[in-house]
Write a structure and sequence with these properties.
The chain is of the alpha/beta class. The chain is 40% helix and 20% strand. The chain starts with 9 loop residues before the first strand and ends with a strand. The model is unreliable at 132-137 (pLDDT under 50).
C-alpha cells in the first residue's frame, strides 16, 4: 500500500490577504507540504505554469483578476490538467460556489476553517489524485468508454475532456451501471466528506455532465440519488 507523504506534494497559495496567506502557509508547512505563495493574480498564474503544483489553494476575492477569472485561465492550460484547484475563501454564497465549480474548481472551502479540517480536506483530494487505474479498452463507436490514465471519456467514439471531479463522479458510476448512488455515497467517495442537500455542489457536477453527455445516461432517482445507464 502506498504511503501518503505530504513532502511529495507542492501547494501554491494565491491570496492577496498577506496575514491570511502567512497563516495558511504555516499550517501547510507544519504538515510537511512544499508551499509556494503569491499575493497577485497574474503572478499566481505565471507561478502555476512554472512550478506545476499538485494543488492550488485560491482566494476568491483578488485584485486585478478575481479567483473565478484565475481559475478559468488556469483551466485553459493543458500543462495543469493534473493540478487540483481549491477555493479557500470567506465568501459562502451559493452563487459564488456554483461559479467556482463552473469555472473548473475541484473543491470549495469556506474560511475560517480549523487547521485539521483544512488539512484533511486537502489530503483527501491529493490522495485520490495520486491513485489512478489504467484501462486498456478499444474505443467503440457507440456508447461510453473511460480512459482513466488520461482522464478522458469517449462518447460514440468522440473524445471528451472532463474536469477532475466530473470525471471521478462519472467513473464511479461507470463501474456500477444501473446502481443507484445516494448523495451521501457520492459526496463521501468523490469529495471525502458528506455534502448536505442545501449545498448544490453535486447538482452542479451532474448538470455539467448531462450537458456534455446528453440526458439519456445519468438518471435522477427522486429523493435518493443518481444512476448511470449504459
Amino acid at each position: 500500500m502506498q504511503i501518503f507523504t505530504p513532502k511529495d506534494f507542492t501547494i501554491l497559495l494565491i491570496d492577496s490577504e498577506i496575514e491570511q496567506l502567512k497563516t495558511t502557509e504555516t499550517i501547510l508547512n507544519q504538515e510537511g507540504f512544499q508551499v509556494i505563495t503569491s499575493t497577485q493574480s497574474k503572478e499566481g498564474i505565471a507561478l502555476s505554469q512554472e512550478e506545476k503544483p499538485n494543488l492550488i489553494l485560491l482566494e476568491l476575492v483578488m485584485p486585478e483578476l478575481d479567483g473565478i477569472d484565475i481559475c478559468i485561465e488556469l483551466r485553459k492550460l493543458e500543462s495543469l490538467n493534473d493540478t487540483l484547484i481549491v477555493f479557500y475563501t470567506s465568501r459562502d454564497e451559493d452563487y459564488s460556489q456554483i461559479a467556482a465549480f463552473n469555472a473548473g474548481a475541484d473543491d470549495y472551502i469556506i474560511k475560517p476553517s480549523k487547521p485539521r479540517v483544512l488539512i484533511t480536506r486537502l489530503k483527501a483530494l491529493l490522495k485520490r489524485q495520486s491513485h489512478h487505474s489504467i484501462v486498456d479498452t478499444p474505443i467503440p463507436q457507440k456508447g461510453l468508454v473511460i480512459d482513466r490514465e488520461r482522464y478522458l471519456i469517449f462518447k460514440d467514439g468522440e473524445e471528451i475532456v472532463l474536469p477532475r471531479k466530473e470525471f471521478e463522479l462519472l467513473s464511479m458510476m461507470y463501474n456500477y451501471p444501473r446502481r443507484v448512488f445516494t448523495r451521501k455515497e457520492i459526496s463521501e467517495q468523490i469529495w471525502g466528506y458528506e455534502i448536505f442537500s442545501q449545498n448544490r455542489t453535486i447538482d452542479v457536477h451532474i448538470r455539467k455532465l448531462r450537458e456534455k453527455l446528453g440526458d439519456r445516461y445519468i438518471k435522477t432517482i427522486k429523493g435518493i440519488g443518481y444512476s448511470l445507464e449504459l
